[in-house]
């Protein structure tokens, strides 16, 4: 009986100690405070009165979806609603020495003239063209900074969770594309994970550089 009580106590103590290693230095909507913390541990320039437009255009963006043996190029990519992203966590773990920055983006909206490139072993690539628009109810981006004392965004690990599948509008630009494009969306969640993996870093850099602290990391193209 005594032993059991002791174990529970030890367990409780451990749990408590673990929680107290987590430090949140800033209110999550206090971007200046977060920027100052990042700047104190890296080379970024704190953004005062930062601005991110509700809509902007990126000339092109190339990404691969290895599972599908395909590559894509978005031309004239219009990104809407990135100004609605917000910081959903920022903490340091004093025990592990790590720092984590998390952002949530509701209703991100992408529109582009898209080229899909289908690869096949020892064959020429096939090209397909369509107009694309997709609205993503929720995309969550988790950034593990290299360490609590070295918060360099450009070498951070960035994980993108497409936590709700998008609503898609796809208009093929020609007959072969219309014939080729799959009407089977049962693997959409795999495609969107690969797609999100490619887009996450650019979205994170744009958001943090514009609103919190400017790192000037090279944008993926
Ligand atoms: C990708 O290519 C490999 C090798 O040709 C093939 O086995 C696989 O089925 C392809 N993947 C898809 C999703 O079509």
TrEMBL record:
It comes from the Eukaryota. One of its GO terms (molecular function) is structural molecule activity. The keyword Signal applies. The keyword Signal applies. Residues 1-17 form the signal peptide. GO terms for cellular component: extracellular region. Keywords: Signal. InterPro entries: Fibroin_P25. This is Fibroin P25. It comes from Hyphantria cunea (Fall webworm moth).
